C-alpha cells in the first residue's frame, strides 16, 4: 500500500485527504477502524474496483461511510487507487447536508451527490498526478461547503470541545457553556450531526485510545489515560466500536496507514512534502 498526502497549505478546515494505491494480484481485505469523521472513499480504480461491506450490506465503487459504520471492510484486487476524504461532522453537515443521516450508514456517493459523483470521479481519474487530484477535490469540496446551511454555532462549539478534550467532557457542562438546556443541545446536535453528544464523546475517546494502542502502549495504561473506568471498560468499548479486542486493534493495518496519512504530532507537519511523495508501507 502506498499513500500520498496533500501539502499542508492546501488543506481545508475540518477536512483531510489521502490518496491510496495498492498493487496486489491477491485479494486485499482491510478492516477499517471507526473514526470521528464522515469518510468519503472515491474509487479511482479501473475494472471491478473496491467493495465495502458492513453488516452484510455491500457497496461497490465510491461510498460515504458514516460515523459509526460497525464492522467495515474494504476489499479489492489487482491495481487500485482510492481518494479518501475525511470530514469532521461539522464539515460533513455543510458538504453533505445536515438532514443527511450518516451515523452508522454505508451509502454510495451517487446516492448523496447524485450525478455530481460520477463527474467528480471522471475528473479525478483523468488527473495526471495526486497533487492535481487533491486540487480538484479541494475545489469540489469548497464549492459544496457553501451548498448547505452551516450547523448552529452552539453545535459546532460542542463538537470542538468534544474533540479537544478527547471525549472527556460532560454533556451537562457543554450545555451550560453554550447557554442551552441539555435536552435542546442533545436534540440539535443529533439532528445536525447524526449522532448524540454522548455517543460522539465515546467515539472521540475510542479514537484516542485506538491510536495509543497502535503506538504500543499497554491496555491498562491506555484505559487510564483515555478516561476509562478500568481495562475491562476499555475492552468493551473497543469491541463496540471496532468488533476487535484491544490486542487485535493495536495491530490493525488501517491505524498504521493513519499514522502516515494523518500523523497526530503537529497539524503543521506532514509526512510528505508534497502529494507526489508516496511512502511505501511495508
How does this model look, in words?
This is Helix-turn-helix domain-containing protein. Keywords: DNA-binding, Transcription, Transcription regulation. It holds the Pfam family HTH_18. The longest helix has 18 residues. The radius of gyration is 18 Å and the shape is globular. Strands 1, 2, 3, 4, 5, 6, 7 and 8 form an 8-stranded antiparallel sheet that branches. It has 12 helices and 8 strands. It has 282 residues and is an alpha+beta fold. It has 2 domains: 148 residues, Jelly Rolls; 98 residues, Homeodomain-like (Arc Repressor Mutant, subunit A, Orthogonal Bundle), CATH 1.10.10.60. Helices cover 44% and strands 20% of the residues.
- Quaternary form: single chain
Instruction: Write down the overall mean pLDDT.
Output: 83
Strand content bin:
15-25%
CATH domain topology of the largest domain? Jelly Rolls
* Unreliable parts: 265-282
The geometry reads as globular
* Count of distinct strands: 8
What number of domains? 2
Instruction: Please estimate the helix content.
Output: 40-55%
Name the CATH superfamily classification of the largest domain.
Answer: Jelly Rolls
Helices and strands, in N-to-C order?
EEEEEEEHEHHHHHHHHHHH
- Which CATH class of the largest domain applies here? Mainly Beta
The total count of helices amounts to 12
Helix and strand content put the structural class at alpha+beta
Largest sheet: 8 strands, antiparallel
Alpha carbon gyration radius: 18 Å
CATH architecture identity of the largest domain: Sandwich
Domain HTH araC/xylS-type: 153-252
Protein name: Helix-turn-helix domain-containing protein
InterPro entries: AraC_XylS_family_regulators, HTH_AraC
Pfam family, one: HTH_18
Amino acid at each position: 500500500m502506498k499513500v500520498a498526502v496533500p501539502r499542508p497549505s492546501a488543506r481545508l478546515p475540518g477536512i483531510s485527504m489521502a490518496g491510496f494505491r495498492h498493487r496486489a494480484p491477491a485479494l486485499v481485505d482491510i478492516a477499517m477502524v471507526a473514526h470521528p469523521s464522515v469518510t468519503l472513499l472515491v474509487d479511482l480504480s479501473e475494472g471491478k474496483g473496491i467493495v465495502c461491506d458492513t453488516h452484510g450490506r455491500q457497496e461497490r465503487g465510491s461510498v460515504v461511510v458514516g460515523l459509526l459504520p460497525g464492522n467495515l471492510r474494504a476489499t479489492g484486487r489487482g491495481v487500485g487507487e482510492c481518494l479518501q476524504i475525511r470530514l469532521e461532522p461539522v464539515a460533513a453537515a455543510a458538504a453533505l447536508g445536515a438532514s443527511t443521516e450518516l451515523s452508522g450508514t454505508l451509502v454510495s456517493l451517487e446516492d448523496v451527490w447524485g450525478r455530481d459523483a460520477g463527474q467528480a470521479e471522471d475528473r479525478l481519474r483523468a488527473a495526471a498526478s495526486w497533487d492535481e487530484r487533491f486540487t480538484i477535490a479541494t475545489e469540489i469540496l469548497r464549492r459544496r461547503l457553501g451548498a448547505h446551511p452551516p450547523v448552529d454555532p452552539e453545535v459546532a462549539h460542542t463538537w470542538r470541545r468534544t474533540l479537544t478534550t478527547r471525549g472527556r467532557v460532560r454533556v451537562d457542562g457543554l450545555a451550560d457553556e453554550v447557554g442551552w438546556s441539555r435536552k435542546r443541545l442533545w436534540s440539535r446536535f443529533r439532528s445536525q450531526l447524526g449522532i448524540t453528544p454522548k455517543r460522539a464523546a465515546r467515539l472521540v475517546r475510542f479514537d484516542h485510545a485506538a491510536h495509543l494502542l497502535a503506538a504500543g502502549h499497554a491496555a491498562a495504561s491506555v484505559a487510564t489515560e483515555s478516561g476509562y473506568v478500568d481495562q475491562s471498560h476499555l475492552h468493551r468499548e473497543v469491541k463496540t466500536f471496532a468488533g476487535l479486542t484491544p490486542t487485535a486493534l493495536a495491530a490493525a493495518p488501517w491505524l498504521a496507514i493513519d499514522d502516515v496519512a494523518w500523523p497526530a504530532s503537529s497539524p503543521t507537519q506532514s509526512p510528505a512534502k508534497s502529494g507526489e511523495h508516496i511512502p511505501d508501507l511495508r
